Amino acid sequence: MKITLHNDAKSHTSSEFIILAAYSNSKEGKKAQTSKAAMLSTDRKEIIAAYEQVPARNYFKGERGENFLFTGSQGVQILAVGLGDKRKTTLEHIRRAIADAYKQAAQRFSNVSIDLDSFDTKQLAETTAAIVEAIGMTSYVFDKHLSSKKTPKLQTIYLDTLEKKSHTKKIEEVIKQSLIVTDSIALARDFVNEPPNVLNSEVYAKLIEADSKKLPGVKIKVLNKAQMKKEKMDLFLSVNDGSAFEARLVHLTYTPKKASSKTKHIAFVGKGLTFDTGGYSLKPADSMVNMKFDMAGSSTVYGAFRALALLEVPVKLTCVLGLTDNSINSLATKPDSIVRARNGKTVEILNTDAEGRLVLADCLDYTSELKPDAMIDAATLTGACLVALGHETCGLMANNDKLANELLDAASQANERMWRLPIFEEFSNDIKSPIADLKNMGSNRFGGSSKAAAFLQEFVRDGISWAHLDIAGIGDGQGHLPYCPAKGASGLVIRSLIQYVQSQKA
Ligand SMILES: [Zn+2]
User: Which of 81, 111, 103 is nearest to 94 (CA)?
Assistant: First the structure.
């Protein structure tokens, strides 16, 4: 599907379907309040005339979530999407309204016009980004394993504006950038949705390697098992012991064109469990379904990394991904094992299903060595995160308030839900073992997300600002958002990470 900006569009490009905004108090506010119907947010006379001929418009108030469909001249269908009070409309309201409108159009029309001028034109760039993001995220389908695919009829979306081309250079750029973001979200969703018999650690590393070759300024290094052994990543490798596939550590670097020794360096680390059976601490059958999703941390950070490289941000980036599955054979790690981590600390493994933190531990130590200015990991780490914060929220834990606040700000600007949880000293004490330096479980189930973070913190070297994002809830099944699939990977948090890096001064 193509998204095309049409300047100087005296009439709408599509003769099939037009989407435009309506507010409960449009710029003709006073008039709107005295009239029964909502005012359409357009000056186009032929549309207003068609609207005024429909008696049912009297019931349309333009409230948020309220839509009104009517027929214009020559049979064109016009959908007015209600956005409520213009002064209170946010970009997220626009994102959701466009996602709903896209769904109405996708199977019925081959081309659609969105009337850009009907939205708040004071922030046209931001509005356009929200519209393109909504279309890009909503149009995603994972249908490669279906014998008969339901291909949408919709081929082209025109963003129509009366503005002259000379005024909309920035908008063209915004469309291009937003598509980079949504393409990266789609790729991240694809990785997670791919079943474990197709995508294992070795295949996953190869796919990322192939994709990274297309990115400007990016270098990739993939460590195999022998190389990881040399790196003393025994804690990570203990998770791989029962697998038929070799673990992989993917290390990507993006260097901006004008890099100097002063260029800021941000590192991402991602948990990539291509499937998690729980190991010998085996998951019950019902909880094991969908454990292909346990790699969402790695695809989230890779999605953000690749978008940022394509956007050519002036910040140096590192992205380290720990890839393996957690399976069982006679060599698989048994509970009670004590294993030495890359940083020298010994860990008593009491539950082989708390494996993500073992993989991340060695990855965090490895990444710390590169001395980034900030290190952010993402992982589907704990069910406790859903208990604490719900399915709709990304848990944030950090050793640095400034970094935590910057991430919260970025998430809020991206309209994604993120909430900070503490790492108290008591939690760190609770993961100490009497017979090893650490154990991989707390002594009870309380504060599970924070105790997992307390464990990870043991592998972050002194002086490194670090934040941990627990995406166990927000990573999939976000069907309450019209631009996310009801089932499967959500691709959320990628936009927050992009926003965070873009807000950094080079
Ligand atoms: Zn697990």
Answer: 81
* Closest by Cα among 479, 482, 484, 496 to 98: 482
pLDDT tens, position by position, 58-72:
999 999 999 999 999
422 CA → ligand 1 middle, Å = 22
CA–centroid distance, residue 351 to ligand 1 (Å)? 9
> In the structure encoding, which two tokens stand for residue 25, read together?
């108090």
- Cα(276) to ligand 1 centroid in Å equals 6
Single pTM value for the model? 0.96
Instruction: Kindly write down the DSSP assignment for every residue of 43-85, as one continuous string.
Output: --HHHHHHHHT-GGGGG----TT-EEEEE-GGG-EEEEEE--B
CA distance 442 to 445: 7
Return the amino acid letter for 283: K
Q: Which structure tokens are listed for 264?
A: 């800021």
- Neighbour-count burial of 230, counting CB atoms closer than 10 A to its CB (0-12 exposed, 13-18 middle, 19+ buried): exposed
* Amino acid sitting at position 89: T
Banded pLDDT at 245 (limits 50, 70, 90): very high
Least Cα distance to 346 among 460, 234, 424 occurs for: 234
pLDDT of residue 38: 83
Catalytic residue annotation = 283, 357
pLDDT tens-place string over residues 323-367: 999 999 999 999 999 999 999 999 999 999 999 999 999 999 999
The per-residue DSSP string of 304-320 comes to: HHHHHHHTT-SSEEEEE
Task: Name, in order, each residue with C-beta under 8 angstroms of 161's C-beta and a sequence gap of 6 or more.
Answer: 5, 6, 7, 9, 116, 117, 168, 171
Confidence of residue 50 (pLDDT cuts 50, 70, 90): very high
Distance 65 CA to ligand 1 centre (A): 39
Burial of 316 (0-12, 13-18, 19+ CB in 10 A): buried
CA of 367 to the centre of ligand 1 (A): 22
| 35 touches 59 (CB < 8 A) | no
CB–CB of 342/232 below 8 Å? yes
Q: Order of strands, edge to edge, in the sheet holding 316-326? A: 218-223, 248-254, 316-326, 265-276, 374-379, 466-470, 394-398, 418-420
Measured in angstroms, how far is the CA atom of residue 322 from the centroid of ligand 1? 14
With beta carbons less than 8 A apart as the criterion, state whether 289 and 477 touch. Answer: no
Confidence of residue 305 (pLDDT cuts 50, 70, 90): very high
Question: What is the residue-averaged pLDDT of the chain?
Answer: 95
Q: At 321, which amino acid appears?
A: L
Share of the chain above pLDDT 90, in %: 92
Tokens at 400, concatenated: 């640095």
> What separation in Å is there between the alpha carbon of 252 and the centre of ligand 1?
25
Cβ proximity of 460 and 399 under 8 Å? yes
Give me ligand 1 centre to Cα 185, in Å. Answer: 24
Q: Which two tokens stand for residue 74?
A: 């020559």
What is the pLDDT, as a whole number, of residue 39?
Answer: 81
